[in-house]
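Hey,
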Amino acid sequence: MSMQIFGNEATEEKAENARLASFVGALAVGDLVKSTLGPKGMNKILQSTSTGDINVTNDGSTILKSIQLDNAAAKILVNISKVQDDELAAELLREAEKLIAMRIHPQTIVEGYRIASVAALDALQKAAVDHASDPAQFREDLFNIARTTLSSKVLSQDKDYFANLAVEAVLRLKGSTDLEHIQIIKKVGGKLTDSYLDEGFILDKTIAVNSPKRMENAKILVANTSMDTDKIKVFGARLKVDSTGKLAELERAEREKMKAKVEAIAAHGINCFVNRQLIYNYPESILTEKGIMVIEHADFEGVERLSLVTGGEIASTFDRPDLVKLGRCDLIEEIIVGEDKLIKFSGVAAGEACTVVLRGSTHQMVDEAERSLHDALSVLSQTVKETRVVLGGGCSEMLMSCAIDEASRKVKGKKAIAVQSFAHALRQIPTILADNAGYDSSDLVTRLRAAHYEGQSDAGLDMNEGTIASMKKLGVTESYKLKRQVVLSASEAAEMIIRVDDILRATPRKREAV
C-alpha cells in the first residue's frame, strides 16, 4: 500500500524519467538556437501571441528570452543564455545522455567533465595573447572582435563599417564598461550604412516653438516637475463659486503660483530647461522671454541619460539653487535625421558620451541592427577591461579539445570516457558552424583536427571558402574572457542538470470561483 504524501495533483518524476525529461528539454533548447550560430547562421521569426509583434533575429539569447517554456531544465539553460548564447551546454548534455545509456554514473560523468574543463581552460589561457601595451595593435584586435561578432548578424554585409563604429564608441568610454554613455537612436528610413556615430548626446525631442534653436555654452537644468497648473482645470474639477469673477481670481492665483515657480527656476542662472513632463504655454512663454531654451516631455530614459552625460542632477524642487547641480555642454542645436527633428548636445561634460543613429528600411531591420550592435559593444567594453584575445572560427574549441584528449590519457577508469566526451562536445561547435554554412562538416572538422595535431595552432574554419585557414591572417578574433565564460558556464549548467534525479512539481494553484 502506498502512502500519499504529496498534495493532490502534485507530481514527482524519479531517476530515469527525471533525467530523460531534463535532457530532452535542454537538448530541444540547444537545437532551437543551434542553427543561428556562426557567420552563415539562420534567422528566426518570433511572433508574439498577445501583441502580434514580429521580431526577426538570430540572436540566441533574444530567441530564448522570448519563448515560453514548461521544462525545468530548459529554463536553467535559458538562464545561462542571458549571459551568452550557450550551444556548448546542450552538446555536453547530449554527450552525457549517451554516457548514462552506457550505465556510467552521473557523478563519474561530472568528475570527468571537471577534469576536462580544467584542461580546456588551461589550454585557452596559454593560447590567449595580450596587445594592451601596443595601442595600434590593440585597436586592430578590437576591430577584429567586432567584425567577428557582427559577421553572424544582420550587419554582416557592412561589418567593417559597423565594427569601426563600435570600436570608436567603446574607445571613447576610456575603459569604462558603462554602456549607458552610448545612446542608440533608431530611425526607420534610409539604408543601414546611413547610420553614423555622433559625439555628444542626441535627444529624440524637439525644442519648444518660440525658444532659440541654438544655444552655446549651455547651463542645463534637468527637471521632473509638473508645469501644467497655470489654468484651473474647470472641466475636471467641481468648483462652487458665487460669481465668475471668483473663478477668474482663482485662475489668477494659479498663474501667480506658476510665475513664482518659473522665477525660481530661472534664478538658477540657466539658459536651458529640460523637463520630463509637459510644460504649458504660459510658463513656456515666460521662460522664452528670459532667453531660456525649453525642452518638454523628454521621456524618462532621455532625462536620466541627459543628467548622466551633462553631469547635472534631476531636480524636482527649486527653492535651493545652491544645492542643485546643473548640467553643462558647449552647444545645443536642432538637427534633422530623415524626416525628424532631434536635439543634439555637443561637448558634454562626460566626454565619453556618444550617440549612434541607426537607420534601416523596416522596424525589424533597425531593431535587429540594435541588438547586433549591442552585442558588439558589450563584448568590446569587456575586452577593454580584460585585454586578452583568442582566435575564433572553431580554432579555440579545437585547441581545447586536443588538450583534453591529451589529458584523458592520464585518467583511469570510466572517468576517462567522460573526459573524452567533453572534447567531443567542444568539437561539435566547429561542426555546427560548418553545417550551418552547408559545407561537409565531418570532412572539414577532421581536417581541422589534423591541422591542430600537426602544430598549426591558429587553424580554423574559413566560412567563405569552406576550407581550413589561419584565423590569425583572417583576423577572426574573439574575447578570451567571453570564451572562458562560455566553457565555465556550460560545464556548470551541464553538471547541474546531470545531477538531477528527481523532479517535483507543486500542485497548481486553484483559481477562485468569482
